[in-house]
Write a structure and sequence with these properties.
5-stranded mixed beta sheet; 499 residues; 23 helices; Hypothetical protein af1432; Nucleotidyltransferase, domain 5; elongated; 6-stranded mixed beta sheet; alpha/beta
Length: 499
């Protein structure tokens, strides 16, 4: 219990929730994102963009069009004013490929400074590394290759052991691909293979390929629709290589007008998807990754993550995010840690991964019981499968759903949940939830009731031990929940009261 509580406290101690912002002057869009909430897992409080397409004429003229500059500057003037009115003093303004490559990029930056902003022109390697740190922040322990596809370029960088290396930028952005692909197929393939050959070691890392950028997320939305994936958020979505190539082959021949009918694919991304899919097919052959993993965190989140100290970076993003989400519903991490430790007596092996899932599940279960009873079952599934969680895969989502349903007294799960984890594992998680229900019922979430009792397997029995001074807690509801849990575990319920 001591180690679990220490783990919980380390994860919860977050820096002050000051607002901070990133203004991203990209080749396709100019975007402002204002964040608040925990430093380790920032919440988006405002997200606004305009499609200026600064890089649309670079291949033909080498310049940013005047009308695009004017559109971008109008948006940046608004963003500068918005950040001041929102009281945001920490604003990072960055410019990427279009401004970097354009003959008149320096002129645009001078005009941006006149608006009171302090733009930083990122090199190709800087841009690649920032995207890579976004992946490192979102997937602790990530090891593989990050591919960030923007309007002006494709950034590649290797990630391993919390660091990145071999960053490279390739002239294969979505605004450049149509002209390349307009050539005959062999010409397009040669151009892509040549760019990868020049990238050298940046494309030679074993492990998954982490895909960053709005066009890749639209690819994920199509794949999730095509495979009837039960999770709605593309962040963390996995595809094996066979499926990825099949879907990319379909998309490369698709009609953008039809793609916009799929949820999660807007008009701008629909136009880019066929070309990006054709690019991806060649990338898979050049890189040979283990699988594809889609990340909604990239350059902007990477910029924020890089500025954190080592202690903040080391925090578990799932526990920090769940604690932040549950706090307004009076779910305290100290209570959740006690409840999670109380359940250990019936838990099977699973190590630290099961420990963090139980802690997250305890936090959410306590919060769930602040929701009106008629909403709890639906909210349990929606919180687990539809909310964006950082540091949680599809399997973990299913385990959280089963835990929360168990805490509501349910002993079955919907098909959406069943599709994501084996029945045996879901049964175990539902047992944890039923045990959490018993703990909550026993003392109305009081800490004393948990610390003066114990739950454990003993031969064919499930034993609830109570201190004699707390014997009155073993009311009818407690005995009913003990019996339900024992039946679920295939054991006989037993109450023991002693000093």
């Amino acid at each position: 219990m001591t180690s679990l509580r220490a783990f919980a406290w380390r994860s919860l101690r977050v820096a002050p929730a000051d607002r901070r912002a990133v203004i991203d002057i990209g080749s396709n869009t100019v975007r402002l994102v204002v964040y608040d909430g925990p430093q380790r897992v920032p919440r988006t409080m405002w997200n606004e963009k305009i499609v200026a397409r600064l890089g649309r004429d670079l291949a033909a003229t080498g310049r940013i069009p005047d009308e695009a500059s004017e559109q971008a500057l109008a948006a940046l003037a608004r963003f500068s004013l918005l950040t001041r009115e929102l009281g945001v003093t920490d604003v990072q303004t960055v410019a990427t490929a279009a401004v970097r490559d354009a003959e008149n990029g320096g002129e645009l930056l001078q005009q941006v400074r006149a608006l009171g902003l302090t733009p930083q022109l990122l090199s190709g390697e800087d841009e690649a590394n920032a995207a890579a740190y976004g992946v490192i922040a979102a997937f602790p322990g990530a090891r593989g290759l990050v591919a960030d596809l923007g309007g002006g370029s494709l950034e590649l960088v290797t990630v391993e052991d919390g660091a990145c290396r071999d960053g490279a930028t390739l002239p294969l952005g979505t605004l450049r691909l149509p002209a390349l692909r307009a050539e005959e197929a062999p010409g397009f393939k040669r151009a892509v293979k040549k760019a990868f050959a020049e990238a050298g070691g940046a494309a030679a890392q074993a492990g998954p390929l982490y895909l960053v950028g709005g066009t890749w997320r639209a690819f994920a939305a199509y794949a999730m629709h095509d495979t009837r994936h039960p999770v709605t958020d593309p962040h963390g979505f996995h595809l094996d290589l066979h499926e990825a190539d099949r879907i990319a082959r379909e998309l490369a021949r698709s009609d953008p007008a039809k793609l916009v009918e799929i949820e999660g694919i807007g008009t701008m991304r629909a136009r880019s998807l066929p070309d990006a899919a054709a690019l991806l097919r060649i990338m898979l052959g050049e890189i040979g990754p283990d699988a594809l993993v889609f990340s909604s965190w990239g350059l902007r989140e990477g910029l924020l993550y890089r500025r954190l100290d080592a202690l903040e970076q080391a925090k578990d993003p799932l526990i920090v995010a769940v604690a932040d989400f549950a706090a307004p519903m009076k779910s305290a991490i100290t209570d959740a840690a006690l409840m999670s430790a109380w359940v250990v007596g019936i838990a099977e092996s699973g190590g630290s991964e099961n420990e963090r899932l139980r802690l997250a599940g305890a936090l959410l279960s306590l919060a769930l019981h602040r929701v009106e009873p008629n909403f709890r079952t639906s909210q349990a599934v929606e919180w687990a499968l539809d909310k964006r969680w950082i540091g949680l895969d599809a399997y973990g989502r299913a385990m959280l759903a089963a835990m929360m349903l168990g805490s509501c007294g349910k002993t079955s799960w919907p098909r959406r949940v069943a599709a994501l984890a084996p029945d045996a594992d879901l049964r175990q998680a539902m047992g944890w939830g039923l045990a959490m229900r018993l703990a909550r019922r026993m003392g109305a979430t009081s800490r004393v009731s948990v610390t003066t009792s114990a739950l454990e397997r003993e031969g064919p029995s499930l034993v609830l031990r109570l201190d004699r001074s707390r014997a009155a807690l073993a009311g009818e509801g407690v005995m009913r929940d003990l019996a339900a849990l024992a039946e679920w575990l295939g054991l006989a319920p037993e109450l023991r009261v002693a000093e």
